Amino acid sequence: MHLDQEEWNALHRAEGALAAAAVCLMSGHHDCPTFIAVNAEKLENCLTTLTLSIQSLQSYPTLEHV
Length: 66
Description:
Blueprint: H1 5-26, H2 40-58
Helix pairs in contact: 1-2
């Protein structure tokens, strides 16, 4: 698959957002299964970045054919 630099950047941002969201969800109150405390602002920022990255990638017609 051939991607231009802007597409690679969008994929990289999406990857970082997913990783940060996973850490945010795993780093609840000492990972206690009965109580989960999540930094909602940090999680929202991760999800916003992921959404923007996906929208950016969807604008590339080359990815529709993959």
